[in-house]
Amino acid sequence: MTGANVRIAGVGKYLPERVMTNHEIESLVDTSDEWIKKRTGIAERRIAAPDETTSTMAVAAARDALAMAGLAPTDLDLIVIATGTPDHLGFPAAGSLVQEALGATRAGAFDVGAGCAAFGYGLVVGAQFVKTGALKNVLVAGSDVMSRIIDWRDRGTCVLFGDGAGAVVLQQTDRPGGLRSFVLGSDGCGAPKLIMPGGGSKMPASHESVEARAHFLKMEGANVFRFATNVIPGSILEATEKAGLTPADLSLVIPHQANIRIIDHAREKLRLPPERVFVNLDRYGNTSAASIPVALCEAFEQGRIHERDIVAMCAFGAGLCWAAAVWEWN
Ligand code: ACO
Prior knowledge:
Blueprint: E1 5-14, E2 18-21, H1 22-26, H2 33-40, E3 44-47, H3 54-69, E4 78-82, H4 94-102, E5 108-112, H5 118-131, E6 137-145, H6 155-158, E7 163-173, E8 178-186, E9 194-195, H7 207-211, E10 218-219, H8 221-242, E11 252-255, H9 260-269, H10 281-284, H11 291-301, E12 310-317, E13 321-328
């Protein structure tokens, strides 16, 4: 098989219209706008409308990414949907719903699940198909409706998350650059620290599981925080070194938008100035698999990514697991 390279030919995003402020959450649980802003950096998040789902949001983001790439849905060879909240639990995959709604009649489609790190995994998987020369155009979207699996009675989690979708079109190219390196990691002994106990094959839905609120996300916040402060700078550094670079070579770092304190800690450890680390969590909170592609799209729209720039992306999440990628914009 001939070798080929990969480029991001298009980016797109979709955020639901409805804005939910911290003040609104004050009426649901014992919290305050001041606490949420100080401890997380989040001011507001978007909430999907009742008729919106992971696949409808991914379709909207995908249309923008395809338009930027100048491609039709029928040009796509593969659709990868990164999500932890698919419209249906595996049957069918959200990927097939996106494929049908787009009219991407030539494309295969599947989902990638890796908690909030799912887009990083999807990006690396999609890029492999293109780099081997097997496929020409691959859509990778991260989309999550976290508002549907959050326990709105649990102040330890409900203040953190929001809904949204982001997408990239990966395309075969002769230009150098693209995916320079990546790191994929998992530490499954941390599984209980971030888990939705019910609804899977281990605990199918029952009256008891609903009563136990087992279909909502449970999180050991402080333990996940500790994990994240190690894994974000650590995996960015590892991926950067794999690419033969140092943090000083990074034009822009796009970290998972989970908590401003985690981001600031990583920035200090990597000795990067604030302008080289992208932040939008004040407006969207943690949109899980959508976090990185939405941020990438906004960074591009704001003129913060140029030809030959080295962009590092890094996410962590349930698993526990993580994914980092160093991308040379080409
Ligand atoms: N409002 C007010 N007080 C709160 C709230 C809230 N929303 N949440 C917790 N508190 C209280 C606690 O009860 C505790 O009170 P106490 O001292 O009386 O017991 C106090 O605040 C401090 O609690 P901590 O847990 O130490 O608070 P911390 O500053 O660590 O912030 C947070 C908690 C924001 C959850 C933090 O631990 C965090 O961000 N963790 C990482 C979470 C994360 O990134 N998750 C996403 C993973 S990605 C994925 O795949 C889904």
